[in-house]
Amino acid sequence: METNMSIAELKRENAELKSANRELQNQLSLMRTIFDRISEGVVATNLEGEFLLANPTAMGIVGMGETDEKPNDWAPHYGTFYPDKVTPIPSTELPLYKAMQGEITNNVELFIRNTERPDGVFISVSGRPLLNETGSLIGGVIVLRDVSELREVRKQLEATITDLQDQTELMDAIFNSISDGVIVADKNGKYVLFNETAKRMAGQNLDNVYIKHAPQQFGLFEPDGQSPFPAEKLPLAQALRGEPANQVNMLIRNPQLPQGIYASISGRPLYNEAGDVTGGVAVICDISTLKETEAQLQALNNQLADQSELLHSIFNSISDGVLVADETGSITISNPSVERIVGVAISSEVLEDWCDLHECFYPDGITPFPPEEQPLVQALHGISTDDVEIFVKNSEVPDGVYINVNGRPLQSGDGSYKGGVIVFHDVTGRVRDAEALNQAFTQGRLEVVDTILHDIGNAINSVAVGIDTIREQLARDRLVNRLAALAHAIEQHQDDLISYIKNDPQGKNVVPFLLMLSSDFANTYQGFKETVERVRDRTRHIVDIIRTQRMYRSTGRGRKVINLAVAISDAIKILQNSIDRRQIQIEIDCGNAPQEILIQESPFHQVLVNLIKNSIEAIDDLTTSGKASELPRIQVRAYIDDDFLCIAITDNGIGIAPQDIKKIFSVGFTTKKHGNGLGLHSSANFMARCGGKIQPFSEGIGKGATMCIMLRRSSIQLDNHQDLEWVEETDGQF
Questions:
Q1: Which domain holds residue 86?
Q2: Where does a domain end: 403, 426, 449?
Q3: In the chain, fewer beta carbons within 10 Å around the N or the C end?
Q4: Average of per-residue pLDDT values in the chain
Q5: Pick from 90, 73, 85, 149: nearest CA to 112
Q6: What is the torsional sign of CA 530, 532, 536, 541?
């Protein structure tokens, strides 16, 4: 009975073993199928390095054939290198070896190149120790992945990132080089982007500022300088409501900007692809100088293009023209203002084509501007340039435009130059205005020339009168005839002269006649002497006028050191004849002023002559009116007042009516019958160009006037002579 049960039990156990064996074989078959089909390579070895498993993916990756002998040392057999593809990797550094030592490795990159893989392949390997059921180390297993394609994708991605970084750096350089301030706000009204110009115009940083707080934080006022500017009317606030704003003027004044600046601001909304407003951008232009000098105000008509990329929107909206070239000289970027200013659009031209397309000259409009000195060419060679003025003309702008150019090289991270950028703006209006002012100044010089010619004419008339007087006196002088008659009588009686004089009735008159003749000769000589001296003085006066005027005939723009007292005396010398004829008392006081100043000599001399001549004419007007009650006088006093050198020219002439005080320097305004109003206008404009002004003072008609020249000491001090125009001293010959 026991034996039968044992057999049955053995049969049952045998059946169970067969079932377990089939199940294990099925599992093994399934595992082999899985390992054969997975995309990752799997290799397992025992502790002696003998292969337990190597699936087809692994063999394909490393170039192992089905019948190839599987070596114990992979490194030399399969040509295994570090990722540099040159340095062989030691066997002890392989993930499989480390796995057989019980170490875990993750994603180790290797390079394999052999006869089966002549081009090589990059693989990523992870290794794990192979353990039995008791946890004992029995070998190692590795998982391999072909990452060559992934590496190529990563390389392309890194190149793309580098290109984007380069473009960002380029746009940032342009963004912070433009002369307009730019502020960008998000849809909540928070400032998220701004350039250095905007910070300077605001007088402070713009981080973490919201539009609703801007009027109080930055001190924003209406153009009257008194009324606070409403936050809801700010161009950026309008832009966030989807409303474009153009050239909104306001005053910015705060503790950091106590004098304040006038700004013209335009705003544009920013949209997403769905057409929703996602933010706004404002472009700020400083118009303080234009407002202060009452020069031409140019309307800012640059519209911001609504583009998806924020920096491109700003770039295409600025009023300055921008050109960018790469290191090969190819123009890669230009904005619409380039075409607006120079009349021709720029696409993908090379710099040589750009130079050929546009005729470039120095500001004289005649001398060609050398291509190698172009600011963009200089920038490509690593040289920065500032305020280079160029005259450009082409078929679209035949009359030409004047542009002011700044250039900067563009550098890569390693310091090498990779291109250049120029930013330029149209200054044609400014240059034309300067030419008009020069014409006005020339006209003012002509007025003085008329005075000089008049004085010279008077002096020449005096010389002519003196010469005629001498001629007439010689023609009708009887002294010679009388002397001849006396000589004849003496000659007739030379043998009995003493008796003749003593006894002859006619001879007795010889001595009285001789004494009277001597007296007459003395009187005639004195008359001739006085007439000749007058002729000599008038001739010297003519020479003096011509010599002095010749000293100041230079039209150069350079400044030089001049003696202030001498300059004032020379201006008076030009008008000396007019002063003497009117018996005007002249007083000069330079005791409280510097002995020498730095200034453009010829225009400054012209200003002094204009103002002194104006005082002379004011004295004439008072005399003509019959209201003159005291001797005419002109006082010229130079002195220092705080930061200014003041030269006050005071007369007791007709004075200035209160309603004319603000108009006397306007072009064309004059109270003279034959004046043209250009003398004072040109003088005032020259002083403005020097950073100074002419301040008029008068208590009214009949009470005299003072014209006070005010020059900033910083502009005429002698600390820096590097811009002087040294000229040779005239020797006074002509």
A1: 38-146
A2: 426
A3: N
A4: 78
A5: 85
A6: positive
**pLDDT confidence of 302, banded at 50, 70, 90?**
very low
- List, in sequence order, every beta strand (DSSP E) within 474-624: 560-563, 585-592, 596-599
Q: How far apart are CA 305 and CA 310, in angstroms?
A: 10
- Whether residues 66 and 10 share a domain: the answer is no
Please provide the size of the chain in residues: 734
Give yes or no for a contact between 730 and 551, defined as CB atoms under 8 angstroms apart.
yes
Q: Does 289 score more than 50 pLDDT?
A: yes
Amino acid, res. 250: M
Q: Which two tokens stand for residue 534?
A: 């007058």
* Tokens 């007042």 found at: 641
Contacts of 335 (CB under 8 A, 6+ apart): 315, 316, 318, 321, 322
* Total Cβ atoms within 10 A of residue 345: 12
Q: Is residue 165 part of a domain?
A: no
Predicted confidence (pLDDT) per residue in 672-729, tens digit: 665 556 677 778 878 887 878 999 999 999 999 999 999 988 888 876 444 444 333 3
Three-state SS at 388: strand
* Cα Rg of the chain (Å, integer): 50
3-state secondary structure 696-730: EECCCCCCCEEEEEEEEHHHHCCCCCCCECCCCCC
Instruction: Report pLDDT for 655.
Output: 92
98-111: pLDDT as tens digits:
988 999 999 898 89
Q: Assign 330 to helix, strand or coil.
A: strand
What is the domain-level CATH number for residue 348?
Answer: 3.30.450.20
Q: Is residue 722 part of a domain?
A: no
Query: 495-515 burial string, b = 16+ CB within 10 Å, else e?
Result: eeeeebbeeeeebeebeebee
What distance in Å separates the CA atoms of residue 555 and residue 725, rounded to the nearest whole number?
A: 11
Decide if pLDDT at 221 tops 70. yes
Q: Which pLDDT value is given to residue 644? A: 92
Burial class (CB in 10 A: 0-12, 13-18, 19+), 630: exposed
Grouping H, G, I as helix, E, B as strand and the rest as coil, residue 282 is strand
Helix (H) or strand (E) segment spanning residue 314: helix 310-315
Confirm if 619 and 573 have CB atoms less than 8 A apart. Answer: no
